[in-house]
Specification:
Elements lengths: L1 E4 L3 E5 H6 L1 H9 L3 E6 L2 E6 L2 H4 L3 H15 L9 H7 L7
Parallel strand pairs: 2-3
Antiparallel strand pairs: 1-2, 3-4
Length: about 90
């Protein structure tokens, strides 16, 4: 199935990926990256979700940075009705 396999990366053809998708998901679940090749070029890459997701400390830092910036914004003293009316202001129907 897998045409080439290195330490944490595997390569397989598009046809093999179609036929053995479940096996590819198992490889990815075990931390491997799988490249899918068609006509000699990589057309897709399956990577473990944890490798592309923010780490918890990065997420917390981003939230803290946003809250710090948000504190600088001027408050809008408007009613819900005004906010609802403003959402379509300038639209052409």
């Amino acid at each position: 199935m897998v045409a080439e396999h290195t330490e944490a990366r595997s390569v397989c053809s598009a046809q093999d990926a179609k036929e053995r998708f479940h096996e590819l998901l198992q490889l990815v679940g075990n931390g491997e990256t799988v490249e899918i090749v068609s006509n000699g070029r990589v057309i897709a890459e399956l990577t473990p979700a944890s490798s592309s997701a923010f780490a918890e400390d990065e997420r917390k830092a981003a939230v803290a940075k946003f809250r710090k910036e948000r504190a600088k914004w001027e408050p809008i003293n408007a009613t819900i009705e005004e906010l609802m009316a403003w959402r379509h202001e300038g639209h052409r129907w």
